[in-house]
Amino acid sequence: MAQKLEETKTPALKTRGRTFRGMVISSKAQKTVTVEWNRRVYIPKYERYTNKRSRVKAHNPPEMGAKEGDEVVIKECRPLSK
Asked: 18-77 domain in CATH 3.40.50.80?
């Protein structure tokens, strides 16, 4: 028999700004994960590309349960209370 997965809902938050897709590299803090993504940046002086990375902290409620190695999509929103 196929198992029926229970869909979890998170409260609707108003979001604004950019959306980012990255990899969870740390989930040690409570309700917080560190997300990292890489991008290529062109340097006109040298006419070459270099790799840059960005790391941000993101809210991770218990219902979502993102773990290290998961690929996630995050979006900017207002600060959330602890």
From this structure: no
How far apart, in whole angstroms, are the C-alpha atoms of residue 41 and residue 79?
29
Per domain, the residue ranges of the chain are: 18-77
Comparing 26 with 2, the larger pLDDT belongs to 26
pLDDT tens track for 24-66: 999 999 999 999 999 999 999 999 999 999 999 999 988 988 9
Give the residue, 68 or 5, on which the prediction is more confident. Answer: 68
Separation in Å, CA 79 to CA 35, 40, 76: 17, 29, 9
- Contacts with 48 (C-beta within 8 Å, 6 or more apart), sequence order: 42
- Measured between alpha carbons, how far is 24 from 46 in angstroms, rounded to an integer? 32
